[in-house]
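## retry 2 of 3
previous attempt timed out at serialization; input unchanged, resubmitting
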Amino acid sequence: MLLFDGLTTETLILLIAALAIDAYAGGLRWPAPLSAMHPGKLAERAARWFDDRLNRAERSPLSLRLRGTLVLLVLLAIALAVGGSVQLLARVHGLGWAIALMLMVMLVALRQPYDRIERVRRTLQSDSLDAARQSIDSLTDRDIYKLDDHSIARLAVEAAGERFVLGVAAPVLWTILFGLPGLLAQAVLLRAAATLRRPDRDLYGKGLALAARLLIAPASWMAGVILCIAAIAVPTAKPMAGLSMMLRDGGKGSLPHARALAALAGALDFSLGGPRLYAQRSIEDAWIGSGRARLLPDDIRRTLMLYAIACVVTAGLIAVVIIATLRS
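## retry succeeded, writing output
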């Protein structure tokens, strides 16, 4: 399962294939039986099932933390067992590789975020503010009715950075390190943690939230470096400014993917992050970057260009790892 495992080269070749398939056909609907078995959806159902039975207001803080930690360990054990089983099956039967490829295509996400953000750009450029607010709704859990046109554009740019971390960098990083078990584990734990975002679940979901941050943090570093490399090919972008901003502002604020946002902000001369408004609360977070915060549809276009090139750079990184393992 680690880099020294004999299956690593084949697994990484499949990972490149999965990225290519998703880049071409991402966002297409899976057949109903396969859609119901999507690891992310299964993780959501499991997290809600445990939450309904274990997260009760009358229980003590210690009891809630212990129960949440137990759920974390159960979900992690299941993900590692399933991923390890598929990887072992691949040793003896081609069906294992087919299942592995299917899982990878399910768990990477390049095309769908790109299409959604591009839809926001087109809507913001040509339609009313209300239509633009509706177009951004699927990319955020913030209060869309408090957004103006500049904050919608900024939120679309931030969504590109976040989705690159969660949909590309994290799956690639944990697959490189731990094969299919790593890919499944990060997907299951991140989806389960996202399911338990409500404030009343803070005690019970503390273990999952910490696990999510530990999974995202190194992926955010990797994503930031890749975005800086990709900025070399984007007109007017500044790759060294992106690297400098990633080191300077990447630790600011509460967002776990702040390193990637800082690299994006520095490379394209934006200011991202800052205060966030939700339906029932607001978060006074730090600004990341020292450029413009009043972003425009053309800034979304430049961000999407950087995003697309970064995906290509990521595939190149996997190819380098493959070559290195073949020579070792």
